[in-house]
Amino acid sequence: MVMLERKLREMKYASVKEEYRSKLRSPDEMASMIKSNDVILEPGGINIPHDFHVALSTRAKEIRNVTICLGLALKLYDFMKPEYKENIHIETPFVGPVERMLIEWGTASYIPQHLNQLGPWQEARKPNVVSMVVTPMDEDGYFNRSCFGGLVPNKAIANADLVLVEVNPKTPWLEGEELKIHISNVDYICESNADLVEIPDIPITDIERQIAAYIADMIPDGSTIQLGLGGLANAIGYFLRDKKDLGVHTEVVQKSFMDLMKAGVVNGSKKNFYPGKVLATFCVGDSELWKYVDHNDSFLFTEVEYNNNPYIIGKNDNLVSVNNALCMDLVGQVGAESIRHRQYSGTGGQMNFIQGAGLSQGGKSIISLNSTWKDKEGRLRSSIVPFMPPGTIVTTPRSEVEYVVTEYGVAYLKFKKVADRVKSMIKIAHPDFRDELTFQAKRFWKE
To answer: Which of 258, 239, 249, 150 is nearest to 201 (CA)?
Structure first.
């Protein structure tokens, strides 16, 4: 019986290997399949197909009005440059350093949306081509869509006329059935050994350490946590090392979670929703993190439409959500994505997790904010302002904000009247600006 089962597995593997060989093409051959007016959907990050993009750049002048929907580009390809704006255009719900440059050039457009709405947006765009980096195929004929694969839903793949994958053996396999794609659902394959772009940890500042210390005090043992991306998340991770039995339900896994898992702080033992599992959609980091998440069944990666659904998030009892802001006004509006009219990052999943925390039994949501920033002349400016500067995008309305933390303390705004919100925000502003904020507040709020 064992011999028979082994023989059947060998025959099955031989069959999928033959199918693999029949679909294998060069990057140039795959790029030649792209036609004018195509809409191409890609995941983003390290799952943007490098060799395919290099090949596509060589024939950019041959095609017109091609749209590529992707998020968080980590490399600048030739077709992204201004001279090709009539040929290929980028649409993105994420904005990083590359996207900021492309938006300035007019070769990319930002699409405002909450992260859990990626699927409906992609459905509305009706992409006819899907391209992405995947892991090598397993013996059952499955690839894994890896670190950013959960940002492209299976239904978009199923509806595409052409599915192109670039196999890169450096790509980690993330646990989660939704991230698998069978060779029968792939039209063509190319192979690549391109180095993956590593995103190093952002250094932790002294101010972030102070903010992290306040936030750590607000996270009880046994909580389930969500942390945003960046230096503050790492700082919070450092201050959580004395906690016990934490769980995680987050949109992005980064190295701070890895460190807490290795230390035994995050074990999911108190989670009521997927106990013992770290739930997430994508993964941002470096080779150390990729090695850690590879085939690690402590993680469960799902598509973003599920993972970032506030109702799903709210199934976690005692969920603590921590997200960042660039500026806030005195009544509690959160600007987390633009510097005046210029798009700096993206709407992301901030509202998803704030609302999810509101649905969580014992949950709470926290907005973290450096109290100041420096302008081009090096002058100190307050991040807490009487009113949002003209053009500033409000990511989260005041009605959704619960806790706000700066290096000067914690403000609780939920269900407070406007005058009390104003007073609470002034108390956590930088001392150098409190008098001016108080003066401005008295002009508009009489209480």
So the answer is: 258
Choosing from 42, 166, 251, 303, the catalytic residue is 251
3-state secondary structure of 165: strand
CA angle 179–181–185, rounded 5-degree value = 150
pLDDT-derived band at 234, boundaries 50, 70, 90: confident
The reply to whether 251 belongs to the active site is yes
The closest of 75, 73, 69 to 89, measured between CA atoms, is: 69
Tokens 């599992």 belong to 277
Q: How far apart are CA 249 and CA 58, in angstroms?
A: 42
3-state secondary structure (DSSP) of residue 143: strand
Residues near 431 by beta carbon (within 8 Å), at least 6 away in sequence = 408
Which sequence spans correspond to the domains of the chain?
2-191, 206-444
Judge whether residue 33 has pLDDT over 90.
yes
Q: What six digits make up the tokens of 28?
A: 């140039």
Architecture of the structural domain at 2-191: 3-Layer(aba) Sandwich (3.40)
Write the Ramachandran bin of 72: left for phi over 0, alpha for psi from -120 to 50, otherwise beta. Answer: left
pLDDT over 80 (residue 2): no
**What letter would DSSP give residue 30?**
H
Angle at 187 between CA 182 and CA 190, to 5 degrees: 90
Task: Look up tokens 């704030």; give the residue.
Answer: 354
Across residues 242-271, what is the average pLDDT?
Answer: 96
Provide the CATH topology of domain 206-444.
Answer: Glutaconate Coenzyme A-transferase (3.40.1080)
Percent of the chain's residues with pLDDT above 90: 86
- The average confidence (pLDDT) of the chain is 94
**pLDDT score of 238:** 83
Both structure tokens of 339: 């510097």
pTM: 0.94
Q: DSSP readout, 193-245?
A: -PPPPP-PPPPPPHHHHHHHHHHHHTS-TT-EEEE-SSHHHHHHHHHTTT--S
